[in-house]
UniProtKB/TrEMBL annotation:
<keyword id="KW-0732">Signal</keyword>
<dbReference type="InterPro" id="IPR007433">
    <property type="entry name" value="DUF481"/>
</dbReference>
<feature type="compositionally biased region" description="Basic and acidic residues">
    <location>
        <begin position="53"/>
        <end position="70"/>
    </location>
</feature>
<feature type="signal peptide">
    <location>
        <begin position="1"/>
        <end position="23"/>
    </location>
</feature>
<protein>
    <submittedName>
        <fullName>DUF481 domain-containing protein</fullName>
    </submittedName>
</protein>
<dbReference type="Pfam" id="PF04338">
    <property type="entry name" value="DUF481"/>
</dbReference>
<feature type="region of interest" description="Disordered">
    <location>
        <begin position="51"/>
        <end position="76"/>
    </location>
</feature>
Amino acid sequence: MKKIALLSGTAAILAALSVPAFAQTEIATGANAAGVSDVEDRISDIEDDVQDNFDRSSDSDRFGPADRRQGLSGSMSLAYTGRTGNIENQDFTLAGRVSYNTGPIAQTLGMSLEYGEDDDGNTDTEETNVIYDAQYYFNDRFYAFALGRFTVDGLVDGFDNSDESVRDTDEDLDLRLDGYLGFGPGYRVINTDTTAWRVQGGLGVRYTQTGEQYRTDDSDTDVGYILSSRFYHKVNDNVFLTNDTDYLTSDVNDVITNEFGVNVRMSDRISTRVSYLTEYQSDRAIRTDNTLGVAVVYGF
């Protein structure tokens, strides 16, 4: 069996493994029992999501590696929760990343381990993820990149998930191994204090093996090509524009995404980001999806 799957784009592989900050268990005496802490946590999640939108739009790599921290750095976090009483379960997570930057080379390795049990005490999560990102700068404009991702689902046991009598779960979970490796050249067309534009293109190879394939010693290896563009322009100290474009082609279909964003600092207290995302896939009945996003941060 041979099938072509969509390869992850350059931006997708850089999806970060978040490391939670240490915080108090409640914001005020009695907040946990009264449910106030749960709402407070949700407020923090919303604020983090909005801030992430602004951080991604600023594109920390737009001017190259000059501002990157040199040497070895990283972080690691671990969390465990065990519950008894009306429900019996436990959850364990371990996540971290290590970066090593020296001279023209910048590398980042990230990993996450997740283990969980359902309310009956049966294991429902057992997953390992590893990502790798590297750039080598030949000069201030020309560079090479490499991207890697590897995922292992320890729960896939070789059953055909489409047969509900055998296993009652979403068939998308019928995946045991999923690996990706991409590499290619990049070039900074414009690199000034106010405008930055870089383009890059490369070859990507994806390896997948489902639980059913594991039983028959089968697997899929899929190849695709991607072209990407990242544009940034500072209008003034309070306004900057971004436009991110990706084009991916493979035997299964063509995918094009374009996101245009306007970021405005209206005052020292108010910042706004408006974005418009267009996604095209050639094999869909309705080929184009459009998404309008608005994010506002107000501090006082």
